[in-house]
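[Solved] Which block belongs to which protein?

Original post:
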Amino acid sequence: MNRMITSVGVALMLAMGVSMAQAQVGANFDPADWVYGPRGVAEGEVPIWNPVMQKIKNGEPVIGGTIRATDPRTYCAMAGAGYDFLWIEMQHEAMTWEQVSRMWLACPGPAVPGVRIAHESEGNVQKPVDMGALVIVVPTVDSVEEAKRAVAWTYFPPMGRRSNGGGQAFSSTMWGDVPGGYRATWNENVVLILMIETLEGVQNAREIAKIPGVDGLFAASGDLGNFSGYRQGDPEYEMLITEVVQAAQAAGKIACGPLRWMGTRPDFMCFQAGTEGANIRRGAQAEIQAANQRFSDAPARPRIAAVLANLTADCGEIVYEADCLSAVREAASASGDLTAPEQQGVRARLMELMAAHPSQAARIREVAAGAGLAIEGR
């Protein structure tokens, strides 16, 4: 469905014999009655040059990687790793927009630039889109009013209120030479995803999803647990997730969630993958493990380096509790193939993680014990 609105605008005045020099606003002028003119409106079918939007239209899954670092070299490595887009974490990190701008300018592809902003204010949306973002993720959307503000600041008129302020997004280095022109085709190519993270958001999810310009709802697995008091697998938690998915589907929008749900929850079509830090640790451990297996004639078996690397990747900073607990379960299960000293090393790492995350300590102990590795002490 074409998002753009075509009209004859002030041509109506000219048809009545009124010249532009003679036209006056008048005392009864009302912007609500204005018919938007042809400037900046693409004629005919609008070309889709954003690969993420094209995959959404094709019904294909979309995967975004997560960026928390500020180094352009690290960003470029992630941009070439195969993700559809990269989600720079501007809700929780202390990086500046200048740092974000440099990363996007260094590698505007292959992964499409994306960002999770802090909230739906004009400044939080205007800055990244002017710098080249093509995917905007807005967290903690509770109401229709918040969702409408996110749409307003994301889209150019007549659909929204984005200012035509320029920036590197308009340059030939980024999107200045796209088919149809950046300004005229922007409203058809930007992807806007709203995160449903609270009980209020779930309550209003169906009305939020209906708003034109909203492309998807993200069922925030971590914060839906945070705000509800339940965890994945609990009936209450699953009820909330189901409502978000059904709200998206009823409105013809996509449902988004963490990458671990890909393949296990078929209603989800876009996903958030891990951070660059987790990928570095996993990549290094895979390379080292492969080298060790080539060096050794012994049958391949789980090695403590690989087990500890996965624990550190998923539990060092607990973004999603379920990811951490899955790593704990895998580590505890793998410990049965390790030597006694190696098993103790896994226990020691788990105890370190429990001390670092006291609110998850009991659950980590429970999951490890259930997988066959008892952790003594409190």
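(Second protein starts here: sequence line, then its structure tokens.)
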Amino acid sequence: MADPTYTPPAVWTYDSENGGRFANINRPTAGAREDKDLPEGDNPFQLHSLATPNGVKVTVMLEELLELGHTGAEYDAYTVNIGAGEQFTSGFVGINPNSKIPAMIDKSGDKPFRIFESAAILIHLAEKFGEFLPTDPAARAEALSWVAWQVGTGPFIGGGFGHFYAYAPEKYEYPINRYAMEVKRIFDVADQQLGKTRFLAGDEYTIADIANYPWLAPFTYGAIYNDAKTFLSIDEYKNVGRWVQEISARPAVRRGRIVNKVWGEENEQLPERHSAADFDGKKF
């Protein structure tokens, strides 16, 4: 049976009762809705985030830098409850006018400044510390290309497939099929590349892997979108599975995955992170 059709009006209007998991906070306008300052710690970096795939990119990067001994990468991480609309406070909008996590303040120098959008944060940290981004022009271009690829594919995975498969108030065949096809194509792109190289941009671990891992990995262990692993036959992508397994074993990745996590088993949650001691007693 075909899905019911919808005839768009001449002029779209906002319907606050459109349903869906995030209907209570989604609006077609930007800007602050509440006057509230952000908390601030003493570390060089102040991260305001949540352990969604985009948030995990940054906490993994910071933990990787600390694992290499870059003490200047110490950070305070504060949870932003996006379900409660905390991304629309004046403090958060001040560091990300787009009201999306993650956002960060670099106060390591004389004058603090903001960095928002996960890819921008990864590139900033890679350049600042000279890690996980090759200096050779060809290798650098390859790594940045895969970072940009992730930025382009993320909306198909999350706002596309994830929304219509897991969050939309009603299930419709056309959008689910459309985005399931695209997610499988995305996995096939990664799988073919990882059949040629150890990591996405070559044989070295880079921000290309840090950017893509939090989006692809949850599918391989069935932890995203109501077990989409089975629906999408993710086990077909053997090279992606091998890559996920190797990256998942990295100590910094294991730590970074639980920072700003506020769901699941209690010993796997870390709502705030201020020092390495915060991981004591945690399962990661």
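Accepted answer:
You had them paired correctly. Confirming on the second one: Strands lie at 45-49, 75-79, 103-106, 113-116.
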